[in-house]
Design brief:
Shape of chain A: globular
CATH architecture of one domain in chain A: Orthogonal Bundle
Strand content of chain A: 5-15%
Number of helices of chain A: 7
Largest sheet of chain A: 3 strands, antiparallel
CATH superfamily of one domain in chain A: Winged helix-like DNA-binding domain superfamily/Winged helix DNA-binding domain
Radius of gyration of chain A: 20 Å
Oligomer: homodimer
Distance between the termini of chain A: 33 Å
Structural class of chain A: mainly alpha
DNA sequence: GAGCTTACGTCAGCGTTATTGACTTTCCAA
DNA sequence: TTGGAAAGTCAATAACGCTGACGTAAGCTC
């Protein structure tokens, strides 16, 4: 952080990490890293007729089995029509199962089939491998900082979705 | 590796931050944070006929003035045709200036016009505001960790582009 | 029970961003 | 002078997002 322009001042905090140049580098780091982040699963998806949207749907259905369409809509932040197109192909291909709600029959609860779980595994294995390697190289403290900054960067509603999933999976 | 079945071993490092659950949370954090990351400039762009691709082009032309088309192609990781469509509109709208190379007349060097710089400012102000707030909330150590992890997540070539730009701007 | 709302699905149309493939012009360099 | 690199363009295609509109089933409320 301190980049050679003198020791931290009497404010008790060195604010050099908030310069425009530092912020630009943060922006560029996000851009380049996100490309790496999606690269591995993307490679798997091109061979099928699927794209990133399918991956996201599969990820969150696996993460929160039995979730309703409306709930998924909120998490993914897309329109009903966009999600439905993806969901339709996933159901037709036998990767996702849609089940009418017991208490509220208007709702459809979404689950992965065995085939869906298999694809989820393949995709997230690829993505986790990179994440694991990055985490290991960076070390636990860097990972904690990484998470802290990302959480601070989310929109409040997204932060809620994130926290809910986190508590769910823990 | 150690996945939560006991205290840290004699390796001297607690590897609990590498469990699958931790990695999943990292993946989800990236997903939700990237949405926030792009949300503010996106809001500005919808009012014009532009999209995220225009933003990226403008950002990197501003960052490395005089860059060639080929160089930009490498940084953005898109095809010539994709970039060209974006570039054409930006030049037609007077935001970007394309200048034939002096030593090599095949090359076109790209610069922002005054109007282009103004838009770049507006876009990056919006994006930096969120980044600054996230950085400040998280603190310098978290920011350092954030950057370390993101760098470890990049593809090697992307890391080179990132480093070159970093040295350029510093 | 009537009427409003909610959850879901779907049709049609559109825009942005990306792709591949093929072709041309210009121009540097061996 | 010839090969190849840099750039620009045309055409076709696909993934993914959007809006608007419509229909059905079902829950809820008065």
């Amino acid at each position: 952080m301190a980049d050679g322009r003198g020791p931290s001042s009497h404010t008790g905090e060195n604010l050099l990490f908030l310069t425009d140049e530092q912020l630009r580098q943060g922006i560029e780091a996000m851009f380049f890293a996100y490309r790496g982040f999606t690269a591995d699963p993307d490679k798997i998806l091109v061979d099928m007729a699927y794209g990133r949207a399918h991956h996201r749907a599969i990820h969150f259905i696996n993460r929160a089995p039995g979730t309703t369409v409306n709930n998924l809509l909120g998490i993914l932040g897309v329109t009903k029509q966009s999600l439905n197109r993806v969901l339709r192909t996933l159901i037709a291909d036998g990767l996702v199962k849609s089940q009418v709600g017991k208490t509220d029959k208007r709702e459809r609860h979404l689950y992965l089939t065995d085939a869906g779980r298999a694809l989820e595994q393949a995709l997230s294995d690829a993505q986790r491998m990179r994440m694991r390697s990055a985490f290991r190289d960076a070390g636990p403290e860097a990972v904690a900082g990484f998470r802290t900054v990302l959480e601070a960067m989310m929109d409040p509603e997204m932060h809620h979705s994130y926290t809910r999933l986190k508590e769910n999976g823990a």
